[in-house]
Amino acid sequence: MYSDLARDTQFPRKPLVDTVGGVDGILTGMLHHPRLKNSTAAKILSAAEELFVSRSYADVTIDQVAADASVTKGAVYHHFSSKEHLYLTMLQLDLADKRRIYEEAIAPTGTSKERLRRLTEKFLNLSETKQNLIGLVRRDINIFEEETRTALVQAYQEALPNLVEDVIRDGIRDEEVVDSDPRLLAWQFVATVEVTLAPYARQQLTSDESKVNHVISLFFGGCARSGSEERR
User: Fold this and answer.
1) Per-residue pLDDT tens over the stretch 195-205
2) Domains of the chain and CATH, by start
């Protein structure tokens, strides 16, 4: 399920603005591009987020984006040269925003458990659309050419799994977490969080607090009974 994103490739860590740089210059500098700061571009990106989350990539058209954003088709093409350009910009900007949020959440104060709790709380405080956007990287990864796939995977890894891995490394160093492969543990943590987004999980865990408690309890405590409470 996570094989395309949990690649063996260890990408060099980059500053955030470099991570947002795209393939063949398509996304270079888009994070701070003046046109993305005006209301028209923001409306287009917001409409695109809703459409790409609710429909497959192939089923979304520029006409639909324009209609949902209440702008002309020409206005969309004024800011984005193609559907792929719009989609990649949308994802890269979202991943960059998430990386900023999560980096603040895991600032090196508190135990690894406390830091991962803060990160999970930040993620679950996002809107449902924003939560689901991160899953598009996995859903649509094979649509694009290899170079574009690599750029997206790197941006995804920098936005979440690598940050979790850093916290887990600190936890292992401080003997708060078992001495195991931190990268594997990071992907297991991410998977546990993503499970809480499934419809069944939302029915059983009806509040953000219950989701956070489930993730942290399962990751740090496991699901086996211990001592005298263990089933015989």
Assistant:
1) 999 999 999 99
2) 16-229 (1.10.357.10)
